[in-house]
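Hi C.,

You asked whether I'd gotten around to modeling the 274-residue construct. I have! Everything is below, sequence then structure, no commentary in between.
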Amino acid sequence: MDGSSMSAERVLRDLRKDSRALMPEVPAVPHLEQAGIATWTGRMINEYSSAIVFEGLARQLEGAGMDDETVRACAEFANEERRHGVLCGAVVEALGGTAVFVAPVQDEFPEHGDVSRAEAALRNVISISCMSETIAVSLIGAERLEMPEGALRELLTSIYADEVGHARFGWRLVPRLIELLERDAQALGSDGWCERLAEYLAIAFDALETHELAHLNPHAAPPAEGACLGLCNGSDARSLFYSTVTDVIVPGLEQFGLPAADAWARRSEVKQAA
């Protein structure tokens, strides 16, 4: 879907052709164009680069014995993330920027090879869908509500709809994986996965907080008209992040019997230990 050149050190993603074909009409706000280009360039990179995460998760779910329909759905999310990258690039191009970027160096997909395939899959489903994608739904949803009607809001709505699907996928899959783990535990006479997951959740919450805060500049305070370009107040976005964790993610995981509240409270211990 994109043109790419590779070297031993980097991958250059060129989305110009596909993005230019989808350029929306954007409001004319000259004094905010550069801020808009910077914001949508960051989103383009993040969205497009997320594809590899869902490809890894699809392979992991297949290895854990999930049905073909579930595996295919997860693999399709990778295509949706690339589409999101192209759509964000379309906004960059419409604002006068260039939909080209050097792909960031990404950590290897966490295989969690020290535990069973089902337990590894559960960890990543929680981290990717129940945590990261749920935060994305919250932040994009808030931005969408602030944005006036128009082509740009329609584009954002299409991304938002996919992100909702990615989050729901994980929340629906968690109880299935827990059931599989409990069945295996009964057969083996061991339920150690519960204790291991409790420790993992603290690590996952710490990683989530670190990642999200790095992308939410607390000093970003665009004027009111910035909403028409999808520019948001960084301090407000950070507050929404914390509210989503404590009001949605933690109680959502707790309803499955997972000690999420304790893990969230202990996330600082993980940082200190590191």
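If it helps when you're writing up: The chain has one domain: 3-273.

Thanks,
B.
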